[in-house]
Every structure is written in structure tokens, then in C-alpha cells.
Design a protein that fits this description.
The chain contains 2 helices and 17 strands. By secondary structure, the chain is mainly β. Strands 1-2-3-4-5-6-7-8-9-10-11-12-13-17 form a 14-stranded antiparallel barrel.
């Protein structure tokens, strides 16, 4: 049984990871932005976020695998000063395929249905449909580049996001860069066998349907940029990465009337954006995050 599982992982993960020698199958993190002030007054709120990601691939043959999994997060904050905390839930399913088109090119195509709201009165207005497609060109074992797009609908309307990325590992294996912009960037260096020092960036854009009986129907739009530096340790279990991050977050959560939308979004530009914001803007704040990742190392298991 163990041998069958190992063979399965060795077949499927190179398809997903391409030039990368690992795949992160489970990730869990908790972050807190301290004393985030509103621009309109002296009041402030904390912003707590629990986030989890799971990847569950199913191999079809040596060139193709089905990608399944899910993301789940909870955000807790005050959308309005002097009001109680709101909890915003985000569940995204993953269903797609990754396939080798040639020795150099691999394509990944994933459907991403989302349920995002305060989960008080779930209905069809809480559901969104997205999709991602990208192609990876393997230059050599330690270098590849990617391009593609992420598209779908949010509560504000339809969006289209071009994607470009790179993976690079230095010849001495000390330095590593992973990026899929405009959403993800990570660069790290090995300090010793169990410790890494890194910097990362994460761009977040998502919407949540709000069910508040005190107000007309509304939705919240999260627009956040996170910049942090981190220490990573895997001395407890080799495949378990523990990270402590400290950084800066440009948190902002816009609240709009449910019918207040835009014409079209070509990230980062929103066309026809004449919406009226109903809450105060948020100032940037210090970010503290703890993170645990289970990483399957392909090369070490071969």
C-alpha cells in the first residue's frame, strides 16, 4: 500500500510542480493585523484571518492528473467603527486537470467555484464562478516560467487577471524564487539545514455578500497587499515547514450597495467604477502571521 501511494505521488506531483522539486499539499495559517485604524476617526479594529489550503490530485496517466482540493478562510473584523465584529467566510473548491503537452510545456486548467459571504443566510447570491489557466515552460531543472489568466465573476461584476510567473533555484541550492504575479511572490535563502530566511508578498482581492437586517442588501470587497519577512524551520518533521512572519498589510474592506457594480475589471484597473462607498477606509497596519505547510519533496523520495 505504501509503495502504491509513493508511486502515485511521484507521478502526479511532477505534473503539478514542473521544475519545482516539491509540492505543498496542505497549508494552514493564522494572521493578525494589529490596531488597524479607520481614516474617518480615531477608532480602530483588529483583523484576524484563518486560512487553509488543501491539494488532492488524482492521477490518470503519466502525463495527466486531475486536480481537486479546496481553500477555506475566515476573516474577523469591524467593517464599520463602533459596531460589532463581522465574520467573513470564503470557501473555494478546485476541480481541473494538469497535463504535459510536450517535454517543455505543461498546461493547468482549473474551475474554481466560490461561496463567499457572512454565511448567515446562504443563497445563490453568495456563489461565484472562477477559472484559472496557465502554461509552464520548463527551461531546465531549476528554472521555469509561467503565463496565463484568472477570470470569473465577483459581486462587483466580471474580472480578468493576466498572470506571469517564474520559479528559480540557484546552482548552489541556497537561493529560491517563486512568483505568480500579481498575487504571489516569495524569495528565500538557506541559513542552515533547518532554517530559512525569506521575504514574501501576497495580493488579495475577493468579495463577500453581507446579510444584515439593519441595512439594505450590501457586499464587502477586500483589497489587501501583504508584505512580510519570515523565518522558516523544519527541525521537528522534515516535511513540515513552520514559519513566523512579520510585515505590513494594506488592509481595506469596502462596503457597497448590492446593486452598485462596475462595467469590467482588467486587474488592476476597474472600468466604470462609479460606486459609492458606505463605510470608512482602513489604514495600513503591522501584520503578524504563523504558518504551517506540509511539503512533499519529490527529489528526496525518488
Amino acid at each position: 500500500m505504501v509503495k502504491k501511494i509513493l508511486v502515485f505521488l511521484l507521478i502526479v506531483f511532477p505534473l503539478i510542480g514542473n521544475a519545482q522539486e516539491y509540492v505543498d499539499v496542505i497549508g494552514i495559517n493564522y494572521s493578525k493585523s494589529l490596531d488597524t485604524k479607520y481614516s474617518s476617526n480615531s477608532e480602530s479594529t483588529s483583523i484576524s484571518i484563518f486560512d487553509s489550503k488543501v491539494l488532492l490530485p488524482i492521477v490518470l496517466n503519466e502525463k495527466t492528473a486531475v486536480i481537486t482540493g479546496f481553500d477555506f478562510s475566515i476573516k474577523r473584523l469591524k467593517l464599520f467603527p463602533n459596531e460589532s465584529f463581522s465574520e467573513l467566510y470564503y470557501t473555494r473548491l478546485k476541480l481541473g486537470i494538469t497535463t504535459e503537452h510536450s517535454d517543455k510545456w505543461t498546461g493547468t486548467y482549473v474551475l474554481l467555484p466560490v461561496i463567499a459571504s457572512d454565511y448567515k443566510n446562504l443563497n445563490s447570491s453568495d456563489i461565484y464562478i472562477g477559472a484559472i489557466a496557465f502554461w509552464t515552460n520548463k527551461i531546465r531543472k531549476d528554472l521555469n516560467y509561467k503565463f496565463g489568466f484568472y477570470t470569473g465573476n465577483e459581486r462587483f461584476g466580471f474580472f480578468f487577471t493576466p498572470l506571469v510567473g517564474i520559479y528559480y533555484k540557484s546552482p548552489n541550492l541556497k537561493y529560491e524564487i517563486t512568483a505568480l504575479m500579481p498575487g504571489i511572490f516569495d524569495a528565500n535563502m538557506i541559513l542552515n539545514n533547518d532554517l530559512k530566511l525569506g521575504i514574501d508578498y501576497k495580493g488579495i482581492s475577493e468579495t463577500f455578500r453581507l446579510h444584515d437586517e439593519k441595512r439594505p442588501p450590501t457586499y464587502a470587497e477586500n483589497s489587501t497587499l501583504e508584505f512580510s519577512t519570515y523565518l522558516e524551520n523544519n527541525s521537528l518533521i522534515k516535511n513540515l515547514l513552520l514559519r513566523l512572519k512579520v510585515g505590513y498589510a494594506t488592509n481595506d474592506y469596502y462596503v457597497y450597495d448590492l446593486q452598485d457594480k462596475i462595467d469590467f475589471s482588467l486587474t488592476p484597473v476597474k472600468f466604470g467604477n462609479n460606486r459609492t462607498r458606505l463605510n470608512s477606509s482602513f489604514n495600513s497596519s503591522v501584520l503578524i502571521k504563523i504558518e504551517a505547510i506540509y511539503r512533499f519533496n519529490i527529489s528526496s523520495n525518488k
